[in-house]
Amino acid sequence: AAAQEPVVGTERLGWEQDAATLLTAQAYQYAVYVDAGMRTVLTNVTCSGTTGPFTCIGAMPAMTPGVHSLALTAAEVIDTVVVESLKSTPLSVRLVVAPAVPLKARIVRR
């Protein structure tokens, strides 16, 4: 089994995208499949670099606490037709929830 990367959900998802030009990589629609489930289009994706493969970063999808498998796709949208790549090798993550903030800190005398 793959090692699970611990995340809290505020991180961003990064990957390398091969494309003819940076403009092409930026024009793709990127999606993630959480636990091989529904396709979710990633938001706020940025790609950078001078030659491919380009470095792309997007928002982490919403997930419930626990272990999840994330697979990415790149797609070209032509009119209303989505031409999607195969899914990437899955990335295994474990969403952990931080403990609640301690409240009412004070000095306690014996």
Q: What portion of residues is helical? A: under 10%
Extended strand count: 9
Number of helices: 1
First-to-last CA distance: 51 Å
Strand content: 35-45%
Estimate the global geometry from the Cα principal axes.
Answer: elongated
Mean pLDDT rating: 92
Structural class: mainly beta
Radius of gyration: 18 Å
Low-pLDDT runs: none
Sheet bearing the most strands, described?
A: 6 strands, mixed
H/E series: EEHEEEEEEE
Structural description of this entry:
The protein has 110 residues and is mainly beta. The protein has one helix and nine strands, in the order E-E-H-E-E-E-E-E-E-E. Strands 1, 3, 4, 7, 8 and 9 form a six-stranded mixed sheet that branches. It has a three-stranded antiparallel sheet with strand order 2-6-5. The longest helix has 6 residues, at 22-27. The radius of gyration is 18 Å and the shape is elongated.
Q: What is the fold's blueprint, element by element?
A:
Blueprint: E1 5-7, E2 12-17, H1 22-27, E3 29-34, E4 39-41, E5 46-48, E6 54-59, E7 66-78, E8 81-84, E9 91-95
Parallel strand pairs: 1-9
Antiparallel strand pairs: 2-6, 3-4, 3-7, 5-6, 7-8, 7-9
Brief descriptors of the model:
single chain; six-stranded mixed β-sheet; three-stranded antiparallel β-sheet; 45% strand
